[in-house]
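Final report, results section. Input specification for complex C-07:
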Amino acid sequence: MSAPNGSTGSNGNLLDLASGIIAKALAAGATGAECVISEGEEFSANVRMRELESLKESGSRGAGLRILIGRNTGSAYTSDLSAEGLRRLVESAVELGSITTEDPHAGLPEASELGSIQGDLKLFSGDTAGLSTEQKIEMARAAEGAALDADPRIANSEGGSFDTNLGRHVFANSLGFAGEYRTSSCSISVAPVAREGDSMERDYWFSLARGAAGLERPEDIGRKAAARALRRLGAVKIETQRVPVVFEPRTARSLIDSIFEAVHGESIYRNASFLAGKLGTKIAAESLTVIDDGTLPGLFGTSPFDDEGVPTRRTTIIEKGVLKSYLLNTYTARKLGMKTTGNAARGITGNAGIGHGNLYAEAGASTPERIISSISDGFYVTELMGFGVNIVTGDYSRGATGIWIRGGELAFPVSEVTIAGNLNTMLMRIEAVGSDLEFRGSTASPTLMIQEMTVSGT
Amino acid sequence: MELSASFFAARFGITERDLEAYLGEALSRGGDYADLYFEYLSTSSIGLDESIVKSATRGVSLGVGVRVLSGERTGYAYSDDLTPEKIRKAARVAAHIAAGPAKTAKMPLHEGPKRNLYPVLTAPTETGFAERVELVKRADRAARAYDPRVFQVSSSYADNLRQVMVATSDGALSFDRQPLTRLNISVLARVGDGLPQRGHSGGGGRVGLEFFRGEQAPEQYAINAARQAVAQLDAVEAPAGEMTVVLGPGWPGILLHEAVGHGLEADFNRKGTSAFAGRVGQQVASPLCTVVDDGTMRDRRGSLNVDDEGSPTQCNVLIERGILRGYLQDKLSSRITGLPETGNGRRESYEHIPMPRMTNTFMLAGESDPEDIIRSVTRGLYCSNFGGGQVDITNGNFVFSASESYLIEDGHLTRPVRNATLIGNGPESMKNISMVGNDLKLDEGIGVCGKEGQSVPVGVGIPTVRIDRMTVGGTA
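Structure output:
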């Protein structure tokens, strides 16, 4: 074979390319097909100790195809979009349709379920294109500089960075759906290292937005990162005990991630979730309401349609402590005798899995200060480590870093401990929900206080 | 291998003159060093769930990464299109990191000594699917046959074949053909409508399908996963607090990966952000501990003939009888610190900048009988299997999650306990190792290591060890 001669289908033409792939798959014997094409451009500038450390800039694209032959599925992907690459893509997917087993629940969504949200979802901002490389480096430098200047104990750093990503996402299927949207993101992050005596601690802070205009000021990000690293200095290990545990928003988010895994359709139909079979029952304290909303303009969990061509929507997962819905794609919905919730998600490889939109716990009434002031002895968790969440049983045990609460105040830093419990009881015993909800990614939570967990230390 | 006989020459018509031109373009604004990483990755995977094959995927991704080093700075760009104009464009973008008079690459390119640590004649990716489909089906049948309490089984098989070519401005050229194969099985068991419990197992390496025809039959993994799930049905709450912990041999070597391995990567150490920075020659572990990182082991998942910068891998001693001997280097750290390369420059793909990473990290065997180690403990925890782990390299704290463990009471393993996270501090925990078994075992070959968003396959291993004091994150 000779070198591939460029690529078929230019930028504006990815929709045609996807439809063409679908047509080729049907011609090759598929009875149904869906195609994803994604295209991305990334830029990254890293600065460390005020000096430029690395620059990276590139683009790439890839196509994924899933075919059905009756109720048999096959899939393939490629980053080679030449005519030869696409011919092999179709050939591979169709060939694999013969090795899978007939599955009565496999298939595309109903035609009536397909569609796309209209209107500007504000997923793309072109404003980073107006920034020179030098300006981008400057922002990373300013953010890291502010951290280094914040305190003499910030004597080292893992650096500051400025990143942008531009993407184009195309989906088409053999039921006639074809849609595309563009996305952009940009972020500034800083990871300073604080040192005092033998104690060395690292922390980070970042800002993420669709365009540069939405970013927090680099100096503010740097100062916040420095403050976070500094407050960890001199951390001690504490005695093993049962106390109230407060998750700040950055760590509370991980509880929302666990709820996502527990309402994930695949875990539900396999009975591999502690929330399987609990629809309509009370599974959490009344103060907890969790929403998945893929339609909120500008946010990072938003898209006009999911990765099966079904419009995204707002789904209440937990309402005042009662489990209201799972998150489903077409396959898991059929397995459970339900309807898709528009949460199909896939990369370019394989079958559609499940993803969330903007998944968040609704804000409560208490300020975080008021929650902390209500606790005589407790643990305020600022970082979690490891993978100790068992979604099947709800058993929860993770490494934690944070600040000890004494007499209603943040008293001293604590590290090298674990917090443990079971999600069933942890959710039921959410005693307070903070008023401080903000989105910094596609999952979000305000401060959450759990009445009692085991903190394991010495 | 001559370039003309290589995969990339045959497939894409790339010549030495092309490589010279691309490297020249990369050094067109000066720079101290440049390299090109060509990659052609073919993958296949099969997924079985509820006793039926629900997914089968095949794919190709290809591209080239161009890197330019200028002092401590790195410029990087890549292209997923191997046409000359696209590669030259990527080289020009990467060149922007430097600002000076143009340089040229050293020519002609020379290939170093060759070896083959994974002489797989036919990679699974290059064969038909029938045998691979049978592997996931056999795993499913064996897990279900093991015990009537098993009610859900998912198994997956994945392989890939990575063709690599690295050309450097130092005049080095290297090729590699890297197969990688893996079988995984996950099992759920329950009594009646009771609470389910999970077990997990798997294995593989840089091997062909013959690997699964011997002792590593899919049935073995299936039985292991089913046995774990069933054992968990009787598990009691895990204890909370500090206690003696005994790690079983093999995969619990993840302790070394987290407690010392990441902290010894040269990038963190030259920057002074690791708890191990500046401690070469110091006691960082008990004198019973000798830890190596060995990229040269035959057929292992973490092995490479050449690392992802084209340098030969080595067996590197990290800790010798408790004394820190050295760090894991990549080219950049080696250039900056003047220390020799160790063959640990790795990257996830052509889209990624290489950095120092582990290969197969393990502790050499000691002298204790594993039975004696367990007998020596009055009250403690024996951990034979783990999920993932994580480390904060700056303060040295690390965690790993025990997925199969048992209480030790008066020198005997008694009841299984539920999942719990163990937490420790790298240098401190390593000093608390008081017994090392004579039963070194390497893991089964399914490890994945993540660092700064890049995943690479790795191996770990450890003999049975006794750690006098660690914090166990249970609730009881």
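The mean pLDDT of chain B is 95. Chain B touches chain A through 83 residues (CB under 8 Å). This concludes the modelling results for the funded period.
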